[in-house]
Design goal:
The complex is a heterodimer of chains A (493) and B (95).
Chain A lengths: L8 H9 L5 H19 L2 E4 L1 H16 L10 E5 L26 H8 L3 E6 L38 H8 L5 E6 L5 H7 L2 E4 L19 E6 L2 H11 L29 E5 L9 H16 L3 E5 L7 H16 L17 H12 L2 H14 L5 H23 L4 E5 L11 H5 L1 H5 L6 H6 L3 E8 L5 E8 L4 H15 L9
Parallel strand pairs in A: 2-3, 2-4, 7-8, 7-9
Antiparallel strand pairs in A: 1-3, 4-6, 5-6, 5-10, 9-11, 10-11
Helix pairs in contact in A: 2-3, 5-6, 7-16, 9-11, 9-12
Chain B lengths: L4 H10 L6 H18 L34 H5 L5 E2 L2 E2 L7
Antiparallel strand pairs in B: 1-2
Helix pairs in contact in B: 1-2
The chains are: A alpha/beta (493), B mainly alpha (95).
Chain lengths: 493, 95
């Protein structure tokens, strides 16, 4: 029998509708694959076997009646940041020990309403703070990709490292993820998968544990561009419960795939050529430019002059918002409580024990930059710079550019417990140098695999679009995918 | 600007995170590295630039000021470490 886990969402959808396979068979295949692989990869922090089989049976009943939603019977993994009713939801933090929400996030509720099946909760950096999935309370995720003839363990990227690893290793059909500075696109690039961060306001943030509210957006990680389009269509919605959710109908993203690039203008920003970028990344970028030109797009050089300030501005804005958002973890309403001699002592001990090192670091930075006397110098200055970063993009789009092509990351996946990155937090932060501008400006960005490096590790390209023009990103990313192909890691786990 | 041990302890107190002497020392180094990195923002000319308040141009959504939710006290306290009759229990705060 063929391995059902190898089917893309689009393929499984057809086979389920044609009754060539059942949702229970498909779900059981994934559950078996997870049980076999998870001890090696640590992609899941909770597997919901019974719930998955119940949901699959209900899907089969609907399919038998000729009914069913857009994702009927499709088994998905959910990042631990999304609230799932009655199921492990801890943002992979110790501080949320034992938390089982009494409600469902809007994004996951949308998926279940369309018939999807939940396989379990996916590992991630604690509160989505990290670029390697090493800050998780549940331990690091291991990238299914390894360098050729090497057994060295690599990171899958972060913070959505569990989502990217699970999709890449065939442990789910697709996964939800979130992106505050690159947390969908960087792990997608490190695992040869497709990840899209939609425009700020496209997916509801309701029921997603907040990290930096003005930057956080949910999006899918999938095996190919079409699957990402199918998933985003279901995840996105207009939601009364999130006042930043935008009142725009959700288009049929899949319909954009296959449209010609003729007459389209693709911008190549000169500021993304940074010192120290490996030659292979430069070469990949050039290849991407050639593919789009050959497909009929016009290539134009553009300038985004404030690019280099995006990362420093991010490391003021995001920690500032995080320090406020994480104030709620106080040992009173949910999760961990460490007793103290009085209430303040209890707060301080609970937060000291409950937060990991990176989370503490960011809460401290945020508290500092918002504290009396420093607000103007740091936070206000950063928000002004953010206005300039957004204006850079607006100017380029006003000049007729339809999408911008850049590398997704400055390197391929690096090793677990990389000494240089562990010694210097700023080195780790530089992973997001190409992705973070997009969050600062609220724009959509997609990472799509472009090829493998000399060691056989995946490298990704990024496309950045106009606000709410995810369709152009799917259309253009599909052209890259057609030229580059798709990439699967050799199975060793 | 650089932070010293005293500042780290003051900020930790504001953030309600207990830190040991050793942790405070390590954090001072890390925070200074990050603050050194963000320092470059001061070279940007922001004359007449408005600080960003929203990335998307949209009007603030409003709704009727009516009760739309409630009667969920048991759900709200369900995940709390210590409760009694739908109240959160905390250490004594008033003598």
């Amino acid at each position: 029998m063929t391995d059902l886990t190898r089917l893309t969402i689009a393929q499984a959808r057809e086979k389920l509708r044609a009754k060539e396979i059942t949702a229970v068979e498909l779900t059981d295949s994934y559950l078996a694959a997870i049980d076999a692989a998870n001890p090696a990869l640590n992609a899941y922090v909770a597997v919901t076997h019974d719930k998955a089989r119940d949901m699959a049976r209900a899907s089969d009943a609907r399919l038998a009646e000729g009914q069913g939603g857009a994702l009927e019977g499709i088994p998905l993994g959910i990042k631990d940041l999304f609230a799932t009713e009655g199921v492990h939801t801890q943002a992979c933090s110790h501080v949320l020990d034992g938390f089982k929400p009494r409600y469902e996030s809007t994004v996951s509720a949308n998926l279940w309403a369309d018939g999807a099946v939940m396989l379990g909760k996916l590992n991630m950096d604690e509160f989505a703070m990290g670029s390697s999935n090493e800050t998780s309370y549940y331990g690091p995720v291991i990238n299914p990709w390894r360098a050729e003839s090497s057994n060295r363990q690599l990171v899958p990227g972060g913070s959505s490292g569990g989502s990217a690893a699970a999709v890449s290793a065939f442990l789910c059909s697709g996964a939800t993820a979130t992106d505050t500075g690159g947390s969908i696109r960087q792990p997608a690039a490190f695992t040869g998968t497709v990840g899209i961060k939609p425009t700020y306001g496209r997916c509801s943030r309701w029921g997603i544990a907040a990290f930096a509210s003005s930057l956080d957006q949910a999006g899918p990680i999938a095996r190919d561009v079409r699957d990402a389009a199918i998933l985003l269509k279901s995840m996105a919605s207009v939601d009364k419960k999130d006042t930043t959710s935008v009142d725009r109908p959700v288009p049929d993203y899949e319909a954009a795939i296959g449209r010609s690039l003729k007459g389209m203008k693709i911008g190549i920003p000169r500021e993304y050529r940074v010192d120290g970028t490996p030659q292979e990344i430069e070469d990949l970028w050039r290849k991407g430019i050639d593919w789009l030109r050959e497909a009929g797009a016009e290539i134009v050089d553009i300038s985004l002059p404030h690019t280099k300030y995006a990362l420093p501005a991010y490391y003021i804005v995001a920690p500032a918002e995080a320090s406020s958002n994480l104030a709620r973890y106080d040992g009173v309403r949910y999760g961990l409580r460490v007793p103290g001699k009085d209430i303040v002592d209890m707060y301080e001990k609970t937060r000291a024990a409950g937060f990991g090192r990176e989370v503490k670091r960011r809460v401290m930075i945020g508290t500092y930059v918002l504290s009396a006397g420093y607000y103007d110098a740091y936070y206000l200055q950063a928000q002004k710079v953010r206005t300039l970063i957004k204006k850079d993009f607006e100017d380029v789009f006003a000049a007729g550019v339809d999408a911008i092509l850049t590398p997704a990351t400055p390197s391929a996946a690096f090793g677990i417990a990389d000494e240089e990155m562990n010694a210097d937090p700023v080195k780790m932060y530089l992973n997001d140098i190409f992705t973070v501008t997009v969050n600062m400006a609220g724009l959509p960005g997609i990472a799509v695999p472009g090829g493998l490096d000399a060691n056989g590790l995946p490298l990704g390209l990024q496309l950045i679009g106009r606000p709410f023009d995810e369709e152009t990103l799917f259309q253009t990313a599909h052209v890259i995918e057609q030229a580059a192909g798709t990439f699967q890691p050799p199975k060793w786990w | 600007m650089s932070v010293d041990l005293h500042t780290v302890k003051r900020v930790a107190r504001l953030a309600r995170i207990a830190v040991s002497e050793e942790e405070a020392g390590r954090m001072a180094g890390e925070l200074n590295a990050i603050l050194g990195f963000v320092e470059q923002l001061s070279e940007v000319d922001v004359t007449d630039v408005e600080p960003m308040t929203s990335v998307t141009l949209m009007e603030m959504k409003k709704r009727q000021d009516v009760v739309t939710d409630g009667a969920k006290a048991s759900d709200i306290v369900a995940n709390a470490p210590a409760t009694e009759e739908n109240f959160f229990l905390v250490p004594k705060v008033v003598e």
